[in-house]
# Entry
Amino acid sequence: MTIKKTISKLLLVLLMLCSAALYSQEGGQSGNANGQPLQKQKYYCKYCGMEYSTVRDLTANWCRNHPLGKNGYKHELYEGSVKAQYTCKYCGMVYRDLLNLTRNICQRNPAGKGKNHEPAL
Ligand SMILES: [Zn+2]
Ligand SMILES: [Zn+2]
# Structure
């Protein structure tokens, strides 16, 4: 009987230790959230929404959605921040990501009819 009691007591202590460890882990995670050293920076083209890991790659590749023409123009860097949703700077339409925003035609683009939305920064 006494052995069973000690075992159940030990189990209780173990449980308490585990939950304490969990709590301390959560605290540590929220403390690290500010730095975010592991998150890689992404760069987007403001005309087509293509995603690159470096500006060099972005500006070295042809943009098929460039307002000046389908050929002969490279991507241009979107200099705004990464957001949960993106707004067109000409008409205010809201999209989930730059790919969707830039592939739809904007009725108010000053460059002319048939041009696409452009993201506000
Ligand atoms: Zn592009
Ligand atoms: Zn628009």
The pocket of zinc ion (ligand 1) is lined by residues 45, 47-48, 50, 63, 65, 75 (CB under 6 Å). The longest strand covers residues 43-44. The chain has three helices and four strands.
